[in-house]
Design a protein that fits this description.
- 47% of the residues lie in helices and 13% in strands.
- It has 724 residues and is α+β, with helices and mostly antiparallel strands.
- The protein folds into 3 domains: 33-184, Ubiquitin-like (UB roll) (Roll), CATH 3.10.20.70; 192-598, Glutamine synthetase/guanido kinase, catalytic domain (Creatine Kinase, Chain A, domain 2, 2-Layer Sandwich); 599-722, Four Helix Bundle (Hemerythrin (Met), subunit A) (Up-down Bundle), CATH 1.20.120.
- Strands 9, 10, 11, 12, 13, 14, 15, 16, 19 and 20 form a 10-stranded mixed β-sheet that branches. Strands 1, 2, 5, 6, 7 and 8 form a 6-stranded mixed β-sheet that branches.
- The longest helix is centred in the last third of the chain and has 54 residues, at 586-639.
- It is globular, with a radius of gyration of 28 Å.
- The two termini are 22 Å apart.
- It binds adenosine-5'-diphosphate (ADP) and magnesium ion.
- Residues 222, 300, 302 line the site of magnesium ion.
């Protein structure tokens, strides 16, 4: 790369022309929504009544899938897909890399006489067998036992993915080993869903709901992302290979004006957003909100919330779609949690609630007092869950890239606490103080839980520094990173809610059996929860310096890095929790722990190698050239008998020496032989390699401020962030 490529990138961005509109601008969104989805409506039209009813039973009521119907569904699905121009089908699954994997097969089977016919049986629909040996499994399988199976997840609809060269029928699946252990992110979502539902139903039954429907977790993920012009992207090997800039001085203008947030969306970006929304609509993904985010070049998309399982699939598909559509518009979509130092990173806020179609959301405060008590128990369960298992929530969002974001005064700290809002906090405060009196408007009165004041929908004020905030009808978990699957956090949320609801149901059942009045039982349950777990509630400023100190006094964990957080997955309490609710066995937990550490080591190692390479081959040469120019200048002046000021030469030579030393230290750190123990390897990476990388960067960023601009080869922050 030469500085020429940087300058020509700028010129090329100037000359950018939008792609021609490829659809009828008058098209109604309703016409295309779900048009590429084998939806319930499509099934109803194409399936025999009894088959449709059977599939519906599985989708709506989680009844086991009747194997006899698979052939009929497969045949209808195939016909539908062929009409949509599909030539191939793929079992899509979500391995522990956090990415989406798919194995494509042709519908065509050669017959032997030179012809072929389209085949797709129930067996092919229900089960696939990709070679599993190349996916991370953390010791769950030996390579020679490479069998892995994909299994159709009936609850997530199949869809057709378009490509200019032919369409593919995609079938969302689970991915398991030969021994039935989960190798993916979807299987545990489904298992945890089941566990949570069983316990939630026990609580609902106690509140008088006879035979309640299954309870599901809803998830509405808000996705933040950056867009940059692809010319700049292509001139940044760090962005291409690591997803983030490993070098780059802060621009003279950062985000301090707050002039980007909710600002007018640039025309080029708006064209991209409209195009992505159209693609998402076709896939039945209910994209709803779009706006500029805080940092320059940063934006957000949020879909309508859906069942966790579907939301998680849709979330993955959204990211894939965004990447592809951005390329079409000459841009690159960055999902890394911290692509640019010094400006805000990107998160994926997971809005979370529980409910079902029969009872609606169980986290809505409600109008009548009876519902209120029920709401308070569900809310109390959240408080218990987050207090007892905050470490697991932290571990569920642990990654090398998210470490750059959490606790960076733009994202919540790594300490997991709950923000309830004034109103709800007040109610729990009263419960904690004996729960008996409430004197807000009507004077002092003795109240049982069933006469607690009605809560209005208004969540009160918001607290952007809280990692887990009640926002009126849901909790918003703000720690997940923009590049992460929501499946991880949803599995933990479901499982810890299962435990907490189990605790609540058992306490109430026991009290009732002992003849306690129901309201009294609820009251003492809530009092117990708030006195044991109220310490997790925090309404102050999560960015302040006192908070970590106070949190420690309260006994809350502050797991700053991935290396601190991942061991939470294999504590005896965690292993017992996941085993009790049959979400993960010990081997599966250990495998996730190991894969997490392995991914951490791998991704930082790639970054370290890139830092070494770019530092040595791009930045060092620019600096040396400039140093040579300056030295020549000093020599020329002296030769002419003019007094030469060597100050400029010094300003380059000092950071240049630091860069050389830094590169040497980094090279040595990279060459370090890792221990077999993955935790030790990851600890070394964190404490030595990342530190060496930071030193190299500091020297390089100083050089960026002193080396002549025409010698600087890497596109700068102000170019990448402001030229679009
Ligand atoms: P914010 O004001 O927090 O930025 P957004 O409108 O960007 O809110 O996103 C809110 C997200 O929360 C959306 O995905 C929305 O569908 C989701 N959401 C709303 N209600 C619920 C609920 N009851 N359960 C889960 N998610 C919800
Ligand atoms: Mg938002």
């Amino acid at each position: 790369m030469s500085n020429q490529s940087r300058l020509s990138a700028i010129i090329a961005v100037e000359a950018y022309l939008p792609p021609p509109i490829s659809f009828d601008p008058g098209e109604e969104p309703g016409e295309i929504f779900g048009s590429n989805v084998f939806s319930l409506a499509a099934m109803q039209k194409r399936l025999p009544k009894n088959v449709y009813r059977s599939v519906l039973g599985t989708i709506e009521h989680s009844l086991p899938l009747d194997p006899d119907v698979a052939d009929a569904v497969a045949s209808a699905m195939k016909d539908w897909a062929l009409e949509k121009g599909a030539t191939h089908y793929a079992h899509v699954f979500y391995p522990l890399t956090g990415l989406t994997a798919e194995k494509h097969d042709s519908f065509l089977d050669p017959v032997g006489d030179g012809s072929a016919f389209a085949s797709f049986s129930g067996k092919t629909l229900v089960q696939g067998e990709p070679d599993a040996s190349s996916f991370p499994h953390g010791g769950l399988r030996n390579t020679f036992e490479a069998r892995g199976y994909t299994g159709w997840d009936v609850m997530s609809p199949a869809y057709v993915l378009e490509n200019p060269n032919g369409n593919t029928l995609c079938i969302p699946t689970v991915f398991i080993s030969m021994t039935g252990e989960a190798l993916d992110h979807k299987t545990p979502v489904l298992r945890s869903q089941q566990a949570m539902s069983a316990q939630a139903k026990r609580v609902l039954t106690l509140f008088g709901h006879e035979d309640p429907e299954n309870v599901v977790a809803y998830c509405g993920p808000e996705q933040e992302y950056f867009l940059i012009d692809s010319h700049f992207f292509l001139a940044r090997p760090d962005l291409i290979n690591a997803g983030r800039t490993l070098f780059g001085a802060r621009p003279p203008k950062g985000q301090e004006f707050d002039d980007h947030y909710f600002g007018a969306i640039p025309e080029r970006v708006l064209a991209f957003m409209m195009d992505t929304e159209r693609e998402l609509f076709k896939l039945g993904i209910p994209a709803k909100t779009r706006h500029n985010e805080v940092a320059p070049g940063q934006f957000e998309v949020a879909p309508m919330f859906e069942r966790a399982n579907e939301a998680s699939d849709h979330q993955q598909l959204t990211m894939t779609t965004f990447k592809a559509v951005a390329k079409k518009h000459g841009m690159e979509c960055l999902f890394h949690e911290k692509p640019f130092d010094g400006v805000n990173g990107s998160g994926k806020h997971v809005n979370f609630s529980l409910g079902n179609s029969q009872l609606g959301s169980l986290l809505v405060p409600g109008d009548n007092p009876h519902d209120n008590a029920q709401f308070l128990v569900f809310c109390g369960a959240v408080i218990r869950a987050v207090d007892l298992y905050g470490g697991l929530l932290r571990a569920s969002v642990a990654s090398a890239s998210n470490d750059h974001r959490l606790g960076a005064n733009e994202a919540p700290p790594a300490i997991i606490s709950i923000f309830l809002g004034d109103q709800l906090a007040d109610v729990f405060d009263q419960i904690a103080k004996g729960g008996a009196t409430h004197s807000k408007e009507k004077g002092t009165l003795r109240i049982g839980v069933d006469t607690l004041p009605n809560l209005t929908q208004d969540p009160g004020d918001r607290n952007r520094t809280s990692p887990f905030a009640f926002t009126g009808n849901r909790f918003e978990f703000r720690a997940p990173g923009s590049n992460q699957t929501v499946a991880g956090p949803m599995v933990v949320l479901n499982t810890i809610m299962a435990e907490a609801l189990d605790h609540c149901a058992t306490a109430l059942e026991t009290a009732l059996a002992a003849g306690t009045d129901f309201n009294e039982a609820v009251q003492s349950l809530l009092t117990e929860i708030i006195s044991n777990h109220g310490k997790v509630i925090f309404h102050g400023n999560g960015y302040s310096e006192q908070w970590p100190v106070e949190a420690e006094q309260r006994g809350l964990k502050n797991l700053r890095t991935t290396v601190d957080a991942l061991p939470e997955l294999i504590t005896p309490e965690a292993l017992e929790l996941f085993a009790t609710y049959e979400v993960f066995n010990d081997r599966e937990m250990h495998s996730r722990y190991e894969v997490g550490l392995e991914q951490y080591v791998l991704s930082v190692t790639v970054e370290a190698n890139l830092t070494l390479e770019i530092g040595s081959t791009t930045i060092l040469p620019s600096a040396i050239r400039y140093q040579t120019e300056l030295a020549a200048n000093v020599a020329a002046l002296r030769a002419a008998g003019v007094e030469a000021d060597t100050g400029d030469l010094q300003t380059v030579s000092v950071p240049l020496a630091a860069l050389r030393a830094g590169l040497k230290a980094l090279g040595a750190a990279i060459a370090h032989e890792h221990d077999d123990d993955p935790l030790e390897a990851a600890t070394f990476i964190r404490d030595t390699v990342l530190v060496a990388m930071a030193d190299v960067r500091a020297a390089a960023d100083t050089l960026e401020g002193v080396v002549a601009d025409d010698l600087w080869a890497l596109p700068t922050y102000q170019e990448m962030l402001y030229i679009l």
